[in-house]
Amino acid sequence: MQSYWGIDLGGTKIEGVILSSPSPDAVVFRHRIDTESHKGYQHIINRIATLVDIMKAETGYQPEALGIGTPGTLDPARQTMKGSNTTCLNGMPLHRDLQERLKIPVSIANDANCFALAEAQMGTVQEVAPNFRSVFGVIMGTGVGGGVVLRGNDGQPFVLNGLQGIGGEWGHNILEPGGDDCYCGKQGCVEQVLSGPALQRYYQKISGTALKLPVIVERYHQGNDPHATATIERLLESFGQAITVLVNILDPDAIVLGGGVGNIDLLYTEGPKRAANYVFNHSFETPILRPKLGDSAGVFGAAMLTVR
Which of 31, 90, 251, 257 could disulfide-link 262, Cβ–Cβ 3.0 to 4.6 Å? Predict the structure, then answer.
């Protein structure tokens, strides 16, 4: 029986899903276990194998292939992981080791790519641009990342990983030269302006008070906190500048926003107006969409990596 198997590898949890078809309504089985990443790389391999065994035992299904969404990226040239905040993965041949352990074909993509693929193939994009040629999925949360999904000549969507495995990594474009230090070694990256922690740091810097982002947004709407106004205005203007870089280069049929910052309503109403000031066009016409799949996008997108 046809099935699509996906695993979302997180720092604290590993989630697996079996789908009977490429649809959010076709879940056969879904299960989570603890990652226990503090026990090291080989233990993570063992935990993934354990989860696959549980999925087999509970359903009687056998996987023909497995898709895995990961923190970080598989370097195409070196075939080792890089850029993962689960640091024991970095420099390790995760793809090779999983295929040897599981004895099935394994496809790997980072979590932002899986988000983009899921929303493009079975999420909100299907309601607005079902015949899309390209989609950009944006993650704006603790960090800022993204993924590009293209439609192949065979009609099948696929993730654009790129020569170096960094396709879609707009979070590390320079937005503010000489700005805040980024862990990547540069200064003023998009991530250091538009991420949730960056917005909170900015508010604290100009106000002297530490507040969580939802409170800052609430104060912006109340209109009685000039520091909240300055923080959210900076978010909107910077978002407009940063998002038009993507549009000018890729000109996607839709952009989907994910992550905690993506829950801010103003990004969907005011964001396109700010972007219109920077886009290389007479108007900004790219749909900016809310995600539909919630925290299911990662694991669903991982399963979609196996669709051929």
Answer: 257
Nearest alpha-carbon partner for 189 in 175, 199, 200: 175
Q: Tell me the pLDDT tens digit for each residue of 206-252.
A: 999 999 999 999 999 999 999 999 999 999 999 999 999 999 999 99
- Partnered with residue 109 across adjacent β-strands are 69
Calpha distance 5→65 (Å, rounded): 7
Domain boundaries, the chain: 4-115+295-304, 131-290
Residue 30: what are its φ and ψ, rounded to 5°? -145, 135
Query: Of 285, 291, 292, nearest to 256 (Cα)?
Result: 291
pLDDT tens digits, one per residue of 197-218: 999 999 999 999 999 999 999 9
Q: How far is CA 197 from CA 71, 144, 180, 213, in A?
A: 19, 11, 12, 8
Neighbours of 76 (CB within 10 A): 12
State residue 29 phi and psi, 5-degree precision.
Answer: -160, 145
Give, rounded to a whole angstrom, the gap between the first and last alpha carbons of the chain: 15
Cβ atoms 92, 132 nearer than 8 A: no
Chain-centroid distance of CA 132 in Å reads 19
Q: What length does the chain have? A: 308
- How far apart CA 71 and CA 86 sit, in angstroms, is 7
| CA-wise closest residue to 22 among 153, 133, 158, 128 | 158
CATH 3.30.70.120 is right for the domain spanning 131-290: no
Q: What H or E segment, with its residue span, contains residue 108?
A: strand 106-110
CATH topology of domain 4-115+295-304: Nucleotidyltransferase; domain 5 (3.30.420)
**CB within 8 Å of 153: residues ≥ 6 apart:** none
In degrees rounded to 5, what are phi and psi of residue 182?
-115, 150
> Structure pTM?
0.92
Dihedral sign of CA atoms 246, 247, 249, 253 in order: positive
Rounded to whole angstroms, the Cα distance separating 51 from 60 reads 14
Residue type, 166: I
